[in-house]
Amino acid sequence: MVARSTPASFMWTNGQYYSMGRVITFSRNVFIPLTTVCRNRCDYCGFRTPVHEGAILSPGEVERLLRHGSTMGCTEALFTFGERPEMEPGFSGMLSAMGYRSILDYCFEMCRLAIKVGLLPHTNAGILSYGEMDQLREVNASMGLMLETVAEVPAHRNSPGKRPEERIRMMEDAGKLRIPFTTGILVGIGDTMGDREEAFMLIRDLHRRYGHIQEVIIQNFCPKEGTPMASSPVPSTDEMCVTIELAREILPAEVAVQIPPNLADASALIPCGVDDLGGVSPVTPDYINPEHPWPGIEELERVAGTARLRERLCIYPRFIEMGWYPPSIEGLIKRLEQQIRGERR
Q: Is the pLDDT confidence value at 19 over 70?
């Protein structure tokens, strides 16, 4: 393990990090799962459904969610869906009936709709090629892909898209394309602390090379009924804290360490070195973990404790300053920046 070093804006006292006037950030989003059909079959996943059960959200449904989110003060449209759903027999026919050649073409159009409504798109679509990311970056403020783990774990034995080398390749391509990027690990799926250390070092090295990593999510495994890992143990708060400390020691200070506040004891984990509470939605549930509702803003303020809670956009300020976004959304970024500054007052 690496030696402990106190990160900026923290003080190490009595075995924990404490705030020295620090800020905890979050974004307000609309969670839009375009489809639950997926080629992967992860042992812990309760999101994936077969084609005959996996509906595609219609453009009308997407627009309704986007407009509702806009009226509720959201700034981000989080688009997600199962990886490569066209590889599942029958899915392409469903998509064709809607007038689209591929799920990525459909996602592109829905991102354009989000921009028109006044929300910044952030797409997490699983494994994409360099060319596909190059296409989608024209309608996205940021994008993401969870690394999950650098280890070959049994939970991924039926999931070709979870091969570490494939995910690392995509993360590197995102850097080459100058896409503000989110990644992270999933704790408790058969990984070890050594695997997590290796993952953080790999992310650190990619960021040093390309400067594109915005945040690293440290997400705890949550068992789902009816899955092969339904009875597997959940990582303890202590284990999560040690993992967060490790991340904060290894990652550059400008890369935020994020935890999902609906999945873990966030108030206990923030002193371990958390910078960000991710995207929360006043409109839609966490479709990946629907049994865990999003906390409201008042709850986030309580969780933040002595730190100051601040809303952010899905593209971090330094990437806005560098111009790492498509010119077509510059006006929207400026308008939403003004919106969240006004809410802070």
A: no
